[in-house]
Amino acid sequence: MIKRIWIEQTSGEGFDPQRDSADVLVETEDSLMWSASFSTITLPLPHALAVHKYHTGSGCV
């Protein structure tokens, strides 16, 4: 079970879910810590797929 969740905005003020990103830290009841970074990418699908292929070397999504 989740014990705590921290969300830290990476931008200065406010949060725009259309263009901002956030770092997330989750602590579970057994004291494990999990982290993730979330970003919104507003590229047309062909551009998003090209970015994915570039970073992963894969054609699969």
Features:
1 helix; flat; 3-stranded antiparallel beta sheet
Question: What features would you describe in this structure?
Answer:
With 61 residues, this protein is of the alpha+beta class. It has one domain. It contains 1 helix and 3 strands; from the N terminus they run βββα. A 3-stranded antiparallel β-sheet has the order 1-2-3, with no helix packed on it. It is flat, with a radius of gyration of 15 Å.
Q: From N to C, what is the helix and strand string?
A: EEEH
Can you give the helix content as a percent range? 10-25%
- Main sheet: strand order: 1-2-3
Report the span from N to C terminus.
29 Å
Mean pLDDT across all amino acids: 79
Count of runs of 4 or more consecutive helical residues = 1
Structural class: alpha+beta
Describe how the helices and strands are arranged:
Blueprint lengths: L1 E8 L11 E8 L4 E7 L5 H12 L5
Antiparallel strand pairs: 1-2, 2-3
